Amino acid sequence: MNDIVLQINNISVVYSDVIQILKGVSLAIRKKQIVSLLGSNGAGKTTTLRAISGLLKPENGAVTEGTIEYEGRSIQNAAPETITRLGIIQVLEGRPPFEHLTVEENLKVGTAARSVRTSTKEDLDLVYHYFPSLLARKKFLAGYCSGGELQMLAIGRALMARPRLLLLDEPSLGLAPLLVKEIFEIVGRINQEQGTTIVLVEQNANMALQLAHYGYVMENGKIVMEGDANDLKENPDIKEFYLGVASSGMLKGYKGVKAYKRRKRWL
Predict the structure, then answer these.
(1) What global pTM score does this model have?
(2) CA 121 from centre of chain
(3) Residue 117 falls within a domain, yes or no?
């Protein structure tokens, strides 16, 4: 039985008709898995998410080659509203709220993406189950929330849309380590308890690989490595270049990692 829900085949993405960001990227996302997309700034991770969710067009970008199929249906360059109604929901980097709406009003905005309008009470109860701090602040204006609360709000708003495929873009960005740990634990629970398939773009490779089932590594708009998350964690190249651990077991400084040369060609 084929459990691949999203298949990206050899796509290229170009901005403003001249700037090529993705160069032949291929991914396979399996049902009910968490798949992590790793890489440094500018590697093409966010562009990959935008290609899936249809958010390239507002940035004057487009998939110029290759295909993206969701449950056997072609979705490359489809309108964002068409894609969200299929159950593909992206949580944007930076977690922007509607500042002049309350926390609960922000959450209810997420229901606009649903193809069928039903009562929101069950969905709100689910969000408050995972994020009880949002329940305590549901009547507060979102503009007064902390960074951690805003990240919870962004994920909660996505849950209100009842996602089948959830795209998370840098959920740890700017957060304290304890908050990152809490949010990653909740993301793991959502995956396990709701069966939600998740694509996680993250620079915190250690946390991402602890959470994920499978991982891809991007550099310069290409996939250069992939494998089971446990295997990637033990790969010496990943440990040294992305986790900052040298083969001796010692932590490497930034300068040493920056100048690192791979032992061999990956892909």
Answers:
(1) 0.89
(2) 26
(3) yes
